[in-house]
């Protein structure tokens, strides 16, 4: 059963190995475990629902609670610390497009705010319930989860937008196809959510980000149905799909999505390659990105992340053996950087991409150690999200910050982001463990993904204040370094104040006018992405 106040299935526990505990204790001190607020106490805080009656809308208290948040760290602090104070007034789980239409008409007639809810995995406050006078409806796409069509000749598949990753892949795999979109939240996030947040998957270098996979679909808006036919290509003016990508529920409700699919690959291997230091490893992956070689993923960890990942892996004997081997090959651990690099496709494609990649890595002193580490990573790639639960129980909070910059800015940006995060809790005399990897590399630059771990404070309000200090310092460093405020997590409420730095005043105004055309009353997920044109909220 899905956990109500944390990540994932409540029967799954991801153990933190002994070495991982020691590393955290050494870097930032022993954790401060805090008791969880019971669900009953949170339910008691729920105000009376203001929702007018409708046969498709439930005002059940538990349903209102679980749709009151996403999975961001502030969401967790409010939920687990008993600070959650805004709840939708009702939840609807429509089963047809006609139901969605009826709900939007009802919302229009009764001045109800609508928050489209996919899998609820947002990490940037997309689902936060606004403090407004109007009733708020959480419109869950959970039951719009069917496969509608597979056109294998055109390699297109059409799904209802609420389908989750595993169900979508099961349908496609049965027919010998895959979408290949694997965000770490894959098990719970939905196709509609991926489109609405411009999501990126772990193997997007091979299959494409969601903007390449999203071929068309249907969006129900206050103005009527926006249809996006899946043409193979078109010269007919601006592409309307790009209005929907990243629209974060502000435009309308995506009910149907057409995606580009690929045949299941014969080979899908991930190798680990170690480099003696950051400079060599960064130059190696930059050269690979520029080469045109078809790799499926590159994940380059800096020395701090390499040490952390190996500590979290457990398997102490095998790691000791690895260290001895790397030393013999001239790589000693404190500076070593681990790179996971994947090859997907036919046997021949994967083999030639692998040999091209290793040839590119050789001048940078890369030492390949086979597929054991990479394939273990692949097997556990959705399990590592459960470590958030484990760390919280041990008294630690963990969050991430991500951006993308052009190549000359990569190394200085990492240094600035890590420094800003490490120093952000100085006023509390608290240390922060920070580590970083490049998660997606492009010919023009790279994404940067930093993880930070800090101790829970005495009170949830204090933990939230620490998180705010970290988020502000890190986001400021991202903007100052010339990076986008997000490579993959979207804007929501948490990145909203930084969006103008990259879109500019004209860009923000254009987006505001666009949303105001589709949603003239400002009732679609207000307060997210950009301020509403008329209310400024
Ligand atoms: C552990 C963890 C790991 C993650 N890893 C990744 C990752 O690797 N890559 C990545 O890109 N993201 C990642 N995320 C972030 C998150 O999973 C993505 O943003 C995801 O795309 C959200 O999908 P969802 O279905 O859960 O949407 P929700 O969280 O429910 O909603 C997100 C936004 O989309 C809107 N929305 C959802 N469905 C629709 C619809 N049908 N029509 C209109 N609007 C809609 C909502 O209104 C909201 O504004 C991760 C999150 C977690 C918790």
Description of the structure:
It is a single chain. This protein has 19 helices and 19 strands. It has 537 residues and is of the alpha+beta class. The strands form four sheets. Strands 12, 13, 14, 15, 16, 17, 18 and 19 form an eight-stranded antiparallel beta sheet that branches. A hairpin with a 4-residue loop joins strand 5 and strand 6. Helix 17 runs antiparallel to helix 18. Bound molecules: flavin-adenine dinucleotide (FAD).
For the structure shown, list the relevant keywords.
537 residues; alpha+beta; 8-stranded antiparallel beta sheet; 5-stranded antiparallel beta sheet; binds flavin-adenine dinucleotide
Please give the alpha-carbon distance between the first and last residues: 36 Å
Mean pLDDT: 97
Determine Rg (CA atoms, Å): 23 Å
Tell me, briefly, the overall form: globular
Helix fraction, binned, reads 25-40%
**What's the β-strand tally?**
19
> How is the biggest beta sheet arranged?
8 strands, antiparallel
Oligomer: single chain
- Detail the poorly predicted runs: none
What structural class should be given to the helix and strand makeup?
A: alpha+beta
Question: Helical element count?
Answer: 19
Cofactors and ligands: flavin-adenine dinucleotide
Query: How much strand?
Result: 15-25%
Itemize the secondary structure elements and their pairings.
Blueprint: H1 18-28, H2 39-45, E1 57-58, H3 61-66, H4 73-80, E2 90-92, H5 97-110, E3 113-117, E4 136-140, E5 147-151, E6 156-160, H6 165-174, E7 177-178, H7 191-197, H8 204-207, H9 210-213, E8 214-221, E9 224-228, H10 241-244, E10 253-260, E11 262-263, E12 267-275, H11 278-291, E13 297-301, H12 303-312, H13 316-328, E14 337-345, H14 347-361, E15 367-368, H15 372-379, H16 387-393, E16 396-406, H17 407-423, E17 433-438, E18 441-442, E19 445-455, H18 460-480, H19 500-518
Helix pairs in contact: 1-12, 4-18, 17-18
Flavin-adenine dinucleotide is lined by residues 7, 70-71, 115-123, 126-127, 141, 161, 183-185, 189-190, 192-194, 196-197, 199-200, 248-249, 253-254, 385, 488-490, 525, 528.
